[in-house]
Every structure is written in structure tokens, then in C-alpha cells.
């Protein structure tokens, strides 16, 4: 299998490596910021935005590598209809976390798998309830994990897990960036033997 991860995310690469396949990574050939602006003008829902971005990332690689099996994805936080992406700055991260503390938000993980030019898509929505935390605790967390490249400012695979009272999710790996149970099941159903390098 010629497997390509259409992502430069080290977190997604670490997850995909758990399936046991050899794969290469490719940066998606889309202007993500421009596409987001266009979709926001059309007032798409957070779920639609994640789906479209995931599709377009995969399809951009398909044009160059039509023979490959391509995995792509997008992740964002839906907080009462407001989309929270990657904070980029420490102040931005603290502000995001302050908004969400003591409340429940949705973490949307959209994943696209392209096999023989056929697009198969999956959405995983985790309901995540944050603890109430002091300003000092939030600042300490951001300094500890530096989650500036994580949707909603949460690095769940590090110390971010202790920010939560409750997480409801079908596949915990989806919270980290890729739903490995769905992905492995779908590849297996399409004839790909698991753990084969």
C-alpha cells in the first residue's frame, strides 16, 4: 500500500504510525487560511468547515498521487457555535481556555480516507467538559504544554487531560488527531492487512 498522510502534524504522524503501515507525509496543497475565509463568508457550520477542509487537503494530494491511499483530516473546537482553532500565541491560548473553563465544548475531528479515488469520510465529535480553573492554573498549564499548535489550546496527549472533568468520545485517539479504530477498520474492510509494513 502506498499510504500518504496529507498533514505536517507530528501528532497525526505519531498516531498513524501505530497502525503499523509504512507511510509518507505530504503538506496539503491548499491555502487553508484563504479557504477558511471563503467558507466563513458562506456561514458554514463548524462541522461543515472541518469536513470541507479535511476533504480538500486529501484531494489536493490525490491530483499528484492518484495511485496512493491518502489520509487527511481537520480538527477544531465548536464552543457554542464559535469556532476555536489554534491559538498561535500564549495570550490567545489563555483567552481560549478561560472562555471554556467550567463549560462543555465539542472537539470535531474530521477524517478523510481516499482509496482508489473513492472518498470515505468520518466525523468524530467529542463532548469535553472542562474544570473550573484559576487564572494562575490556566497560565501554568499554557507555560507547561505550550499548546499553541493545538485546536482549542489543549494538548490532550500531554498535561491537557487534567483540564477536564469529563470527556465523552467513541475513540480517544480522535481527540489526539486521528480516529485509529475507524481508520484501521476501514482499511481492513478495503483489503489492507493490519500491521503490514
Report on the structure:
The structure is a single chain. By secondary structure, this protein is of the alpha/beta class. It has one domain: Maf protein, CATH 3.90.950.10. The protein has seven helices and seven strands. Strands 1, 2, 3, 4, 5, 6 and 7 form a seven-stranded mixed beta sheet that branches. The longest helix has 17 residues, at about 45-60. The model has no long low-confidence stretch (mean pLDDT about 95).
Structural class: alpha/beta
DSSP summary: helix tally: 7
N-to-C series of helices and strands: EHEHHEEHEEHEHH
Helix content: 25-40%
> What is the strand content?
15-25%
Oligomer, anyone?
single chain
CATH topology: Maf protein
Number of strand elements = 7
Report the sheet with the most strands, covering strand number, pairing sense and barrel closure. Answer: 7 strands, mixed
What is the second-level CATH architecture? Alpha-Beta Complex
CATH class: Alpha Beta
Specify the overall morphology.
globular
The average pLDDT is 93
User: In total, how many domains does the architecture comprise?
Assistant: 1
Radius of gyration: 17 Å
In angstroms, what separates the terminal alpha carbons? 9 Å
Amino acid at each position: 500500500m502506498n499510504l500518504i498522510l496529507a498533514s505536517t502534524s507530528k501528532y497525526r504522524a505519531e498516531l498513524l504510525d501505530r497502525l503499523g503501515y509504512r507511510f509518507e507525509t505530504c503538506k496539503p496543497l491548499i491555502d487553508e487560511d484563504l479557504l477558511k475565509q471563503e467558507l466563513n463568508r458562506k456561514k458554514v457550520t463548524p462541522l461543515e468547515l472541518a469536513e470541507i477542509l479535511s476533504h480538500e487537503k486529501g484531494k489536493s494530494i490525490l491530483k499528484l498521487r492518484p495511485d496512493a491511499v491518502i489520509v487527511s483530516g481537520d480538527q477544531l473546537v465548536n464552543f457554542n457555535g464559535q469556532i476555536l482553532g489554534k491559538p498561535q500565541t500564549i495570550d490567545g491560548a489563555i483567552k481560549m481556555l478561560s472562555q471554556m473553563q467550567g463549560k462543555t465544548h465539542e472537539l470535531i475531528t474530521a477524517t478523510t480516507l481516499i482509496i482508489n479515488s473513492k472518498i470515505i469520510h468520518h466525523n468524530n465529535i467529542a463532548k469535553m467538559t472542562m474544570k473550573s480553573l484559576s487564572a494562575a492554573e490556566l497560565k501554568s498549564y499554557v507555560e507547561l504544554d505550550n499548546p499553541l499548535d493545538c485546536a482549542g489550546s489543549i494538548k490532550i496527549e500531554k498535561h491537557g487531560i487534567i483540564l477536564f472533568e469529563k470527556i465523552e468520545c467513541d475513540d480517544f485517539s480522535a481527540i489526539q488527531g486521528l480516529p485509529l479504530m475507524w481508520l484501521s477498520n476501514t482499511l481492513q474492510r478495503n483489503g489492507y492487512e493490519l500491521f503490514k509494513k
